Amino acid sequence: MAAMNTTKKPYIITRRKVIFDYGRLHCDTSEKLLKSELFEEIVGRFIKKISSKGSSTFVHLRKCLPSMQNEKMAGYFVGLFRLLSSHTAEEITGITNEYSAVLAEKEYLYEFIEELYNYWRRFERFVYIEAPKRSQYTKSSLHHAKFIKANEEFKNIVLSVYRTARENLLGKNPRVYRQLPAGANMGMLLEKVDWHAPDLYKPLLEVPFVRLSLIEPPVILYPVMNKRKGRFEEIRQLDEKMLSLDPGEWFCFPAKVGSLIGFIYFHRDFVSLGLSLGNLFEIADYEEISNKKPDLILLFGLKNDLPGDTVFYEDETEDTLVGLIKHSEDVDYFGYFKKMTLTLHNIAMLKKGRLPVHGAMVYIKLKDGSEANVAIIGDSGAGKSETLEALRILAEDHICEMRIIFDDMGSLGIDQNGSVTCYGTEIGAFVRIDDLQPGYAYEEIDRSIFMNPDKTNARLIIPITRYHHLVRGYPIDLLLYANNYEQIDDSHPAIDFFSTSKEALSVFRSGARLAKGTTDEKGLVHTYFANPFGAPQRMEKHEETASLYFQKMFKTGVKLGQIRTRLGIEGFEQIGPRTASLELFKIIQNYSNAS
Predict the structure, then answer these.
(1) pTM for this model (two decimals)
(2) Is 22 exposed, middle or buried, given 0-12, 13-18 or 19+ CB atoms closer than 10 A?
(3) Strands (E), 449-543
(4) 405 contacts 469 by C-beta, under 8 angstroms
(5) Residues in CB range of 97: below 8 A, 6 or more apart
(6) What is the fold of 355-427+464-594?
(7) What whole-number distance in Å separates Cα of residue 77 and Cα of residue 83?
(8) 490, 443 in Cβ contact below 8 A?
(9) What are phi and psi for residue 413, nearest 5 degrees?
(10) CA–CA gap between residue 570 and residue 564 (Å, rounded)
(11) CA-to-CA distance for 415 and 417, rounded, in angstroms?
(12) Domain extents for the chain?
């Protein structure tokens, strides 16, 4: 299905990732898999690993094959596996003496097979098929079906090869079959699309677009970093050298970022993070990208000299915002993908007269008929998402419907009726596992992508809403600032409201929070409007826009206040959001009834 390319291997192994072109490495039978270049290279790499460690398995094999060089062993064992795919150990011994010594003590070879299988499964595995012609796959569900079938086929063949070799070696079948994910963790159907690229961006035309993404959850990934640091700095000039790249090493994820279209390009070394975008953003339709110019462009993994690791440029001539992230292990963290994209989105929103907000928003309808659109604003670790999740659980018996509009970034606009209205950006959420209600991550495991689950700031990427709800626009009723650092007492209730727009602006502008280690900050810190993603970079425009919207909300009856989540206070990570959510539940009841 893919265009032949004889200059490069049909696969690459890089940074604990295996990325392969299934069009050129098509294995629809066990025989083809065992004859593939990739299989022999995996065996060779595995032997090299166990020999360097001096494992007991390798020591035994070395005794069986004393004169064989390590680099020759891969071919030797590939030949043995081919025989084991159709013959028992006894039959092989009857056919040839070449493998008699290795087969004499089956337990050691059994351990070799098990360890090799686990070695393969510990790679992050990615498969793709690229259309030989531009726009071939776009409107054909047949190609989609074939791609999904090919991935299932590959997974089943890997399992079959492993099981057959093991069963033929031991001469018996297992009593428990575990259907482990042995194929690709993620896949993508690719094609090149002609979009309206000005001269400076012409080289990007040769980078294929992701037109279909496939995820086999739960996916567990281990990026090098587990937190984000630094700021996204603006540069005043963009030239061809900064954008130069090898299209054969890059992919593009065309994302719907709220109402905007963003072309998110990523180097293959960051393919796991790039494809994780499928749990966060909707993939743009063909009609939205063909012969169109994107609102946003992000290039992640550039090996060129850049003015900084994470920079952006406003191309006023083309009315496009461009983000550039350098190829470095220091940025091997999903937060850079997400936050740079949202920084570009927020600057674009300010240009359109909207106010970007960093927080979470839900539409809540109670069984007694009460309803409200509630937005909680706050920086990373402030407790906005955690409070809404606690509300969902604690008030489950009373809630008729709870619809997430956004969870991290949105924007305020004014609709045709003059009401302040909220819009979202993402269909998914990138949340800290530690701050979720106990068991929640496991309830959603069948749709989730886990990142560094064994480390501090372990994260989960999970789809949470439909794109329709992001762009529909919901009039806002309650806008609350997430205060995660103050204790609750008589003078500091769980929720209180501001009496003037000036008072509200002062608290929101201060952006105070107790940092929880989700970035490189510690202690009580202040971030302008709790939003380092676009607001500080366009502070003058943001200040003007915020003042307009806050005055408008007070005039139209929107209630502005702060909610004390106590998420940053040790020992209150669960109790704090739970208490705040109970108070929020009462206010929603009273607010709706009063209205």
Answers:
(1) 0.92
(2) buried
(3) 449-451, 459-463, 474-475, 478-483, 495-497, 512-515, 523-526
(4) yes
(5) none
(6) Phosphoenolpyruvate Carboxykinase; domain 3 (3.90.228)
(7) 10
(8) no
(9) -130, 180
(10) 14
(11) 5
(12) 11-170, 186-351, 355-427+464-594
**Max CA pair span of the chain:** 91
Q: Structure tokens of 52?
A: 């360097």
| Alpha carbon distance 525, 228 (integer Å) | 16
Q: Which stretch of DSSP H or E encloses residue 183? A: none
Contacts of 181 (CB under 8 A, 6+ apart): 121, 155, 216
Angle, CA 100 vertex, CA 95 and CA 102 arms, to 5°:
135
Q: Which two tokens stand for residue 301?
A: 């993994």
In order along its 595 residues, the chain shows pLDDT tens digits of 344 344 578 999 998 999 999 989 888 899 999 999 999 999 999 999 999 999 999 999 999 999 999 889 999 999 999 999 999 999 999 999 999 999 999 999 999 999 999 999 999 999 999 887 776 666 666 677 888 888 899 999 999 999 999 999 999 887 787 778 889 999 999 999 999 999 999 999 999 999 999 999 889 999 999 988 888 999 999 999 999 999 999 999 999 999 999 999 999 999 999 999 999 999 999 999 999 999 999 999 999 999 999 999 999 999 999 999 999 999 999 999 999 999 999 999 999 999 999 999 999 988 888 889 999 999 888 888 788 878 888 777 888 888 889 988 999 999 998 999 999 999 998 888 776 655 554 556 678 999 999 888 899 999 989 999 999 999 999 999 999 999 999 889 999 999 999 999 999 999 999 986 666 667 889 999 999 999 999 999 999 999 999 999 999 999 999 999 998 898 998 899 999 999 999 898 876 555 5
Secondary structure of residue 405 in the 3-state scheme: strand
Question: For the CA atoms of the chain, what is the radius of gyration?
Answer: 27
Distance of CA 210 to the CA centre of its chain: 15
Residues 533, 409: contact at Cβ < 8 Å?
yes
How would you list the strands of the sheet with 219-221, edge to edge? Answer: 219-221, 449-451, 459-463, 428-432
DSSP strands (E only) in 166-309: 186-191, 209-215, 219-221, 233-234, 250-257, 260-267, 282-283, 296-302
Tokens of 306: 């850049």
Residues in the chain: 595
Q: Return the structure tokens found at 240.
A: 């061809």
Residue type, 149: K
Cα distance between residue 564 and residue 505, in whole Å: 17
Can you say how many angstroms the Cα of residue 339 is from the centroid of all Cα atoms in its chain? 12
**Nearby residues of 527 by Cβ (< 8 Å), 6 or more positions away:** 379, 511, 513, 536
Task: Report the distance separating Cα 434 and Cα 380, nearest Å.
Answer: 13
Half-sphere exposure of 393 (CA within 13 A, CB side): 16
Q: Could you please report the per-residue DSSP string of 142-175? A: HHHHHHHHHHHHHHHHHHHHHHHHHHHHHTS--S
3-state secondary structure of 589: helix
DSSP notation for 18-68: EEEETTTS---SHHHHHHSHHHHHHHHHHHHHHHHHT-HHHHHHHHHSTT-
